[in-house]
Amino acid sequence: MDFLWPIKWVIELILVSFHTLFTWMGMGPAQGITWVLAITGLVLVVRAAMIPLFVRQIVSQRNMLVVQPELQKLQKKYKGKTDPDSRQAFAKEQMDLYKKYSANPLSSCLPLLVQMPIFFSLFSVLSESQKGKAGVGWLSKDLAVAFADSSIFGAHLKDTFMTEGASITVKILAATMIVLMTASQFITQRQILAKNQNPAAMTSQYAQTQKIMLYVFPIIFAISGVAFPLGVMTYWLVSNFWTMGQQFIVIRNMPTPGSEAHKAREARLAKKGKTSAPAAIVAAEGSEPAEPVKTQRAQPVSKTRAKKNVK
Length: 311
Hints:
Elements: H1 5-24, H2 32-49, H3 51-77, H4 84-100, H5 110-129, H6 141-149, E1 151-152, E2 155-156, H7 168-195, H8 205-224, H9 230-253, H10 260-271, H11 279-284, H12 303-310
Helix pairs in contact: 1-2, 1-5, 2-9, 3-4, 5-6, 5-9, 7-8, 7-9
């Protein structure tokens, strides 16, 4: 039984709908650019539907960074204690901290986990279409063949870097897309570490895990990308660009307290007069802090002088 059947059905519906729309607008139904734009439309619909989940992920990641100092104190408290009671107490206090700060250690993986069934469904749809097989619903046999055989810059969307007898155009295009996928994934993760980390949490275990992911995910993309058809890589590349832009906007407007992005946001708001920022932050942004207005201190007047003034 195909457990991805419902997801494939929805993917085919969105893909075929966009293909029909672009065909109606005058684009060739068998042209690669038509299918590439249809895949792009699929990405936009999927990622737009995931915005609430992404915002929840960002908030949870922020909370995970905020809770790190408390976790470090907790780890020192139970350091060297390996008895069952201490382990149980540590686990309970740790879960209480996560609950208090609404933090989820798995938050960074949620969007990826949600996208994986969609990614594999699209991979399956394209793999079956290149064999001339119809989809589970909206993708007819004719459309499936047109999808697989369509080409862009002379490269078929069904081809991979490892396809036997693939042209040099396919290899160049596939290699370029793999590099862009890897770079976009690296930049996206780097945004969090460079701009949205609280300095107090930089030495925490969570921050160290984030640093490892900074290099692990791009390597995974670089290695596995050679086996992905160009059509699937188109989906993943556009999705990565969406994530990079979306995260830039979120970090700019919802930064982690104490991070470089938070200081920059406070400085921008201070310039607009919407909030008060420390003078050092304002000066760092290129504007001079206003000098305090000097006022003359009133001298106390004795009773004798007061009576003379009255006369």
